[in-house]
Amino acid sequence: MKTLLTLFVLFFSSQSFAFLFGITSVENATCEDVEKEAKGQVLKNLFGAEFTILQVKNSKELSRTKDKLICLGDLKLDNGVESKLKMEVYEEDGQLWFKYEQETGYSINNNTVDEEYLVSRSTLKEKILNCKNIPNNNDRLLCFDEMSENIKTADAIMIPNIEKLFAENTLQIGYLGKPFYGCLIDIKYNEEQRDALTDEIVVPGSIYEVSIGDVENYLSAYIEDFASFSKNDKNAPKIGDCFAFILDYPITDQYMWGWANGWGKIYQGNDFVVDEEVNKIKPLLDEISVEKFLNDNVSYGTKKIKLTGIVTAINTRKNNFISEHFQLQLSSPSHENNSVNSYIVIAVYYAEKWQNNDVIKNRLKSIQIGDTITVSGFFSKELGATHGFNVIEIIDD
């Protein structure tokens, strides 16, 4: 039988141990189970101050493996502090361990909450949440009235949660000027470098990539603000920390890579409210222009459609690495392409469909740069382009 131990950790905390009952395995544990176990536990920090967990709610799963479950929930302590609590259940040496860690960005010291270096929070969001949590209806309405008098809501912007973007079948995430909000579920560090004689660390391992989202859908990116942090830095971001991000260019779901290779920074613009409401997915049309395709920002998957765009490049060269084909670059008049081809469609017409047909060959030869053309086919990640389109037929009016 496995023994279940608990490890209570706060920012700069000491450790204490106790037995937990109710959770018998990582595999069968849920975040609701974990937050129930947290209620009533007494936590002690480095200074010896003790805090009782009054409530943990709204817990969500950040990641799960065979041996570890990580959850993040809203924390309320007996000293009046409200924050986030990262909770882990993991198996090690035949035992089950339970670990609590207050979200990075806050430290507990008596009855105060001090913000640390890396913070990307919306003051407007915090005020709204505080008002929403007031049980008395009149007091809650008064809170909203006072809030509206003291803040400039016209200066605030709505920033979508990354889970919302995934749920809405979003084509691309990270348009310039389009920040998104999300929590870290993985952090990767460069290997540290040590002195060959003394074994002292001469170059600490720094963060080169983080994964943002949840265990089912996540985006991986290099975040400039994180690059200077080493694993042992007390101010370094940790799994479960949430920020608003802005990317230098949009990325999409790529063949074999997924939502990867983003490059960006923490959003430091106007005050914001996190938009978590999932809207109804826009209907997938049977006929669409490249411009509308990019403006709607909805993935069409492999649905067969007719696609119209402006020809901005033609490639008829043979390639020894892929099947012989005729390639068109289809663009939109209102989207300027960049180095990662985020605002064009690469339409590939494989030779097997036209090589023995002189009529089609002549039609292909007649296509010129600047022509507006319609093709029938479907989008395919396997083509290796950001927006690769497998052409079945050239459509003539």
Quickly describe the structure.
14% of the residues lie in helices and 39% in strands. The chain is built from six helices and 25 strands.
Describe the structure.
This protein is mainly β. Helix content is 14%, strand content 39%. It has six helices and 25 strands. The strands form seven sheets. Strands 1-6-5-4-3-2 form a six-stranded mixed β-sheet. It has a five-stranded mixed beta barrel with strand order 11-14-15-18-16. Strands 21-22-23-25-24 form a five-stranded mixed β-barrel. The longest helix is centred in the middle third of the chain and has 14 residues. The radius of gyration is 26 Å and the shape is elongated. The N and C termini lie far apart (73 Å). The N terminus is likely disordered.
Unreliable residue runs: 1-21, 104-117
Terminal residue distance: 73 Å
Mean pLDDT across the residues is 79
Biggest sheet character: 6 strands, mixed
> What Rg do the Cα atoms give?
26 Å
Strand content: 35-45%
Shape: elongated
Overall number of strands: 25
Structural class by helix and strand composition: mainly beta
Strand order of the largest sheet: 1-6-5-4-3-2
Helix content: 10-25%
Number of helices: 6
